[in-house]
Amino acid sequence: LKELDDTSNTIIMDFKKWCDDLFGSCRSAFMLFDMDGSKYVDYKEFRHCCRLHGFEKDVTELFVALDHKGEGKLSVESVSLLDEWPPDEETMFQEMRDRLAQRRNSQFRHRFPSQNE
């Protein structure tokens, strides 16, 4: 997707990361968003739930990018496909840097405990 449309790729990857962080997966987020149990979420439901749960990016652009069939609704299957996508390189490297920093901080605290400990 990135090669075809960098803007759509960015907002979809932001949404995927947000879903993973907040709900555990895109599928879990969708199941919460599907308030009527229809296995579909229309734009109004999607916008409402994204805003309710704090997604601050352009929801209209995101919905259009996810609604690749142009049906005006999202299915659980189409949104769940995002769970199979690997993280983008930037996210992957940032997560590696974060884990390394946590390990270094932990080792530093172990070697040099503060006087309060």
Walkthrough of the structure:
- The chain has helices at 6-23, 26-33, 43-52, 59-66, 76-80, 89-111, and strands spanning 40-42, 73-75.
- The chain has 117 residues and is mainly α.
- Strands 1-2 form a two-stranded antiparallel ribbon.
- The longest helix is centred in the C-terminal third of the chain and has 23 residues, at 89-111.
Radius of gyration, CA atoms, in whole angstroms? 18 Å
The proportion of strand residues reads: 5-15%
> What global shape is seen?
elongated
Beta strands, count: 2
The low-confidence runs, each spanning 5 or more residues with pLDDT under 50, are none
Question: Main β-sheet, in a few words?
Answer: 2 strands, antiparallel
The helix count comes to 6
Helix and strand arrangement:
Layout: H1 6-23, H2 26-33, E1 40-42, H3 43-52, H4 59-66, E2 73-75, H5 76-80, H6 89-111
Helix pairs in contact: 1-2, 1-4
Task: Give a short synopsis of this structure.
With 117 residues, the protein is mainly alpha-helical.
Task: Offer a few descriptive terms.
single chain; two-stranded antiparallel ribbon; mainly alpha; 117 residues; 62% helix
